[in-house]
Amino acid sequence: MSPGPQAEKKSPGDTKGASSDTLSLNGVGLQYDDGPEVLADVSLTIPARSFYFLTGPSGAGKTSLLSLMYLAKRPTRGNVILFGENVTEAKRGRLAMLRRRLGVVFQDFRLLDHMTAFDNVALPLRVAGVAPNVVQRDVTELLKWVGLEDEMGKHPAALSGGQQQRVAIARAVVNRPKFILADEPTGNVDDVIALRLMLLFVEMHKIGSSVIIATHNHSLVERFAFPRLHLADGVVTQIPAGE
Asked: Domain count of the chain?
């Protein structure tokens, strides 16, 4: 797969050469049933080839915001524009097509229990019709990257929580998606593996993916000079890198 060695290096948030924005949220609100709004009047733009951390206190609505971004939920009000297309009222079939351009890391991993680690990671490539020899090469290389070269034939039940998390991350990035959204992707691993996984996301950014990572890991936020989207009280504030 070689996700990064030949990639042109870009500064954090650099959008030079981008043809359009990846995502725009315009006056978005999200409410569950008759409860208060979880998100209120959120307006933000994610340029192509950008990288943001998503921060905020527990319960602030970070997972809800990500679910709007990866099209699992529709806003109560406002518009969501993904890859230049207003998806707020789009039909399910169209949403399914757009999701193929996304790579999502869920907090609960959502691995397929009947498949091995290798087959879970290979699934997006096989759905896309990638040649078997390329699937073998890319999946093997990526599982080595995340330190699971000896676990490829195991099913999720035989893996630890941290190992399952790494399989989920590998699956999310294996087809080089245009937009990667990760919900606490380093929450179940030690600092060494967390750094290795962050470097993988950075490499994906270098080859053209927009990346948003929701995290409580302040040391990673401080180490990597990327801007932040800070969510509190239903409102998103954009914070420049290094602040």
From this structure: 1
